[in-house]
Amino acid sequence: LKQLQDTVFVSKMVKICGIGESKAETMILDLIEGQSNPTIAPYAKSGEVHFRVTASAKDTEEANRMLEPILDELKKRFENHIYTMNEDETLEEVVVKLLHQKNLTLATAESCTGGLFTGRIVNVAGVSDVLKEGYITYSNESKMHLLGVKRETLEAFGAVSEQTAGEMAEGAAKAAGTDTAVAITGIAGPDGGTPLKPVGLVYVSCYVKGKVEVKEC
């Protein structure tokens, strides 16, 4: 009991996005299996993975020294998938902070998510300085009318496609006059899926100053 009273516990939270839970754990399986002090505890969140790294020592300074090599190793392995090491900071807060720091503005265009993404962003204080417009374009007509998605693109590739997602993001930025845009299109279900495009298929597109990147989720 006396030993526990003389022990200090210090924890750091490493928050990751863009990698699934199973893959993230596999990437550091050797660290988890060989851990003693510090320890690494994974937590699966919606669309994210968090790792709590905890060290026990006789004082805070020593515990922080023990944490450093583990935190450095996590940074090396996950690189830019780590969006914060601040336990109280959310992903949307980091996004808004980066937009402020880089003096960028944002527009959003959503189909299957129906405004859920924008809803998370608008909960952040100060977002009105960077978020200019949000579009919910559920129908093909709205994608064409509001975002300028080409009819030929929709006919050739469908509303849920890499090509449509890219045009949605670019069109949202142009319509709103912003530097950046995020567009989401997918098949939310419960119906509408096919063998080639099953329920749950989602494309997320990011537009940044003329460059478009699309990711299939």
Describe the overall structure:
With 217 residues, the protein is of the alpha+beta class. It folds into two domains: 2-84, Alpha-Beta Plaits (2-Layer Sandwich), CATH 3.30.70; 91-216, CinA-like (Maf protein). It is 38% helix and 28% strand. The protein has nine helices and nine strands. The protein has helices spanning 2-5, 21-27, 29-33, 60-78, 91-101, 116-121, 140-147, 151-157, 162-176; strands at residues 8-17, 39-45, 48-57, 82-84, 106-110, 131-136, 180-186, 202-208, 211-216. The strands form two sheets. The chain has a five-stranded mixed beta sheet with strand order 6-5-7-8-9. It has a four-stranded antiparallel beta sheet with strand order 2-3-1-4. Helix 6 links the parallel strand 5 and strand 6 (131-136). The longest helix has 19 residues, at 60-78. It is elongated. The mean pLDDT is 94.
- The CATH topology label of the largest domain is Maf protein
* CATH-defined architecture of the largest domain: Alpha-Beta Complex
Rounded radius of gyration (Å): 21 Å
Oligomer: single chain
What is the domain total for the residues?
Answer: 2
| Number of helical segments with 4 or more residues | 9
| Percent of residues in beta strands | 25-35%
The coarse overall form would be: elongated
Strand order of the largest sheet: 6-5-7-8-9
Full CATH superfamily name of the largest domain: CinA-like
* SS content category: alpha+beta
Helix content: 25-40%
Question: What's the end-to-end separation, in Å?
Answer: 50 Å
Major beta sheet, specifics?
Answer: 5 strands, mixed
Give the number of DSSP strands: 9
**Name of the level-1 CATH class of the largest domain:** Alpha Beta
